[in-house]
Amino acid sequence: MSSHSNSPVAELAGRVDAVGGGRGAISLRNVSQSYGSGDAAVTAVGPVDLDIPPGEFLVLVGASGCGKSTLLRLIAGFEPATQGDVEVSGGQPVPGITSGVVFQQPRLFPWKTVGGNIDLALKYARVPKGERARRRDELLTRVGLDDTADRRIWEISGGQQQRVAIARALAGQTSLLLLDEPFAALDALTRERLQEDLRTVSSDLGRTNVFVTHSADEAAFLGSRIVVLTSRPGRVALDIPSTLPRVGVGADDLRGSPEYAALRAEIGAAVKEAAAA
Ligand SMILES: Nc1ncnc2c1ncn2[C@@H]1O[C@H](COP(=O)(O)OP(=O)(O)OP(=O)(O)O)[C@@H](O)[C@H]1O
């Protein structure tokens, strides 16, 4: 078991979305995204074909500017693809409904308290008013932020703010979590701790995760499958299923294992090769 197997975030995962009916599945068919027109047109990504079954922890990795965030935005439904079909849970992606999103910066509402940020997410998730306070406290307890509901956002650390952002994403109880370099701005220790919590969460059945990163370390540690993108326009250069165990081994043991080292090296080499191609 991970050293954080009983962590609050892990417990929370058990409550998010029942498995079944293809919820959380992602299908990308011949998907491309371009910006601008004429000589100024830029194709950011594609064409990409990808099937992500429910429960997968897919890491998208590639050099800066290769289109990782663009692909994530298409899956979130923030913008329509210029070409191809994007389906989530068997239909069109709908922001805030078919997925929860965590960005590099927590993007919390600074004028609201910690609890107020979660309340708003519960409201958008159409959780009945009478249930919101209980659910909010439950979420905060389970991301390790007991007794912070009344704190202002600037009174808590960056790592704590990112925990609030994760709780907020989970408040919607979506079967898909999209994470765009969520730990990049954090110190190394906090980053490792949150990676461990997230990995433990993901080993619970039911939720699909798509996680964007530059880091081969992070990709090897987190992914049940790692997709390496080419340089812009990002296409699938390599699709690597991870054989690392997702439960039953501690984070330190995993990070110290030769299998992890080999996977990390394979990803690192593939990213370099794909960026140069
Ligand atoms: N709204 C937009 N308008 C014009 N160009 C865009 C837009 N969004 C992205 N691009 C371009 O598309 C390309 C891919 O950008 P994207 O942010 O998806 O890459 P990325 O792999 O996530 O980069 P990084 O790792 O640096 O965050 C870049 O060249 C970027 O400038």
UniProtKB/TrEMBL annotation:
ABC transporter domain location: 26-256
Gene Ontology MF: a single term: ATP hydrolysis activity
Gene3D superfamilies for this protein: P-loop containing nucleotide triphosphate hydrolases (3.40.50.300)
EC number: 3.6.3.36
Keywords attached to this entry: ATP-binding, Hydrolase, Nucleotide-binding, Transport
Keyword Nucleotide-binding listed: yes
PANTHER family: ALIPHATIC SULFONATES IMPORT ATP-BINDING PROTEIN SSUB, TAURINE IMPORT ATP-BINDING PROTEIN-RELATED
Protein's recorded name: Taurine import ATP-binding protein TauB
Gene giving rise to this polypeptide: tauB
